[in-house]
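Checklist before submission:
- one chain only
- standard amino acids only
- sequence pasted in full

Submission:
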Amino acid sequence: MRKFIVSVSSAAVIAAGAAAAMQTGASASTAVHLPPYDTASQAPSQATQARPPDISFVTSMISYHAIDVAPAGLSPGDGYVLAGRVTRNGAADGLSTARCTYTVTSGPVLRICTVDYALNNGLIVTSGYINGSGQGAPVTLVVDGGTGAFKNARGYGELEPTSTGSDVALYLTG
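Returned file contents:
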């Protein structure tokens, strides 16, 4: 049995583009907007569809490392780790890390990621997935928790890869 462990920080926002770069050598941007959900019906709530994110920021990649486990070439277990700088409201606000692992590499490609944001006022821990092999495949995030100003945070988010990193929007419930 093969065991693969990877860790990544805020650069995970960049990870979606970096993973695509690993496959194709380039990175592009794709926009995706996930509506907040009404937990009673599990359907988008009209009252919350226009809700702005509770926190949004930009990441700029500072490092990227591809991981290729046997067999050579893209296969389940391969992945990448990356790191980035976080900018919020035009000012430096910490670092990000990401680690993504390919679980399905034929047909629709699936990557599972952990993305952490070490911001000046606390840590936000997220997990998510990238469904697709496109260079700018968006990352759907689940906010798993945090520290400091984000203690007990829960929610969801979206990470949109850019040519230099990512744009991140988080919708918090805790």
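Reviewer check: The longest strand covers residues 91-104.
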